[in-house]
Amino acid sequence: MNPDTDLAPAVESILEAARERTGGDEVVDVDARSLPDAIAQAEADDRVPVIAEVKPTSPTSDGTRDDDPVELAEAMVAGGATAISVLTEPSHFGGSPEALTRIREAVDVPVLRKDFVLREKQLDTVEADLLLLIVRFLETDALEELIGAARERGFQPLVEVHDRSELEAALEVGADIIGVNNRDLARLEVDLETFESVAPHAPDEVTLIAESGVSSPADVRRMREAGADALLVGSAIMDHGAADSDVTENTRRLVSAETEDET
Fold first, then answer.
1. Catalytic residue at 212?
2. Looking at the whole model, is its pTM more than 0.85?
3. What b/e readout covers 207-239, taking b as 16+ CB neighbours within 10 angstroms?
4. Is 211 among the catalytic positions?
5. Which residues, 6+ apart, have CB-to-CB distance to 92 below 8 Å?
6. Which domains does the chain have, with CATH numbers?
7. Which residue among 114, 182, 250, 256 is the active-site one?
8. Catalytic one among 58, 61, 85, 181?
């Protein structure tokens, strides 16, 4: 993949900052909490498996949430979140590895480190159960090496794709947890048809996650009907435009989308 092709200026800026970041001084090993097991438990409990995202801000959000990240994560779990995603990118999303560490100590669900990892040393930044790797930003050999290195450390790699060709690249290097991002990286526009066009080509044994653009119970049902095993939801839960928004209720509304009528 060519990481510099058809990217929005904001994404190029994020990548430039990522290239300059290093990792920790020592190899990080983790005893990971299983995302597939957590998804299965949510299903057994009649909850939609939702990975709720602690994201203080982003280039596409309307504002910033200054709440304590641990309190936000605990509220999401109280609302039924299956897992927590934590932005650790500091320059554009207001995240930090320290926030992830605090959250992972406070909750008992899997925690995803969402960042822009480009080389192996950056794996050794913080313990997390899952680690995001984005196909668009990595050559095939580098992606394969990072998946292997992440697994050696105990991480579960969540490999993000945006179209069918990227899905094929992810499958070629053995990805078994795959996220389909509905946000286009060139225009930063969201289209749920992205997931619907890619999902039919994913093998049944892959854990498939719909990312971005889910804002209502109707969106939840649409993505689930298209084959999503889980959904990664950030802005609709964080609600950056309303600092006093009830994160627990926002989460509960989505995880119960298949068992309650939309109100």
1. yes
2. yes
3. bbbbbbbbbebebbebbbebbbbbbbbbbbbbb
4. yes
5. 10, 13, 14, 17, 58, 59
6. 9-21+31-255 (3.20.20.70)
7. 114
8. 181
> Which CA distances in Å does 182 have to 37, 86, 152, 156, 231?
25, 19, 30, 22, 11
Q: What is the pLDDT of residues 187-218, one digit of tens each?
A: 889 999 999 999 999 999 999 999 999 999 99
Q: Which of 234, 160, 233, 167 is nearest to 199 (CA)?
A: 167
2 in active site: no
Please answer whether residues 73 and 107 qualify as being in contact, where contact means their C-beta atoms are separated by less than 8 angstroms.
Answer: yes
- Out of 85, 212, 235, 256, the active site residue is 212
**Contact in structure between 122 and 23 (CB atoms under 8 Å):** yes
120 is catalytic: no
Q: Examine the residue annotation and report whether 160 is marked as an active-site residue of this protein.
A: yes
Residues in the chain: 263
Which one of the listed residues 74, 127, 166, 211 is annotated catalytic?
211
166 belongs to the catalytic site: no
Sign of CA dihedral 152, 157, 99, 68: negative
Count Cβ atoms below 10 Å from residue 250 Cβ, excluding itself: 20
Q: Which amino acid is at 61?
A: S
Does residue 260 have an active-site annotation? Answer: no
Mean of pLDDT over the chain:
91
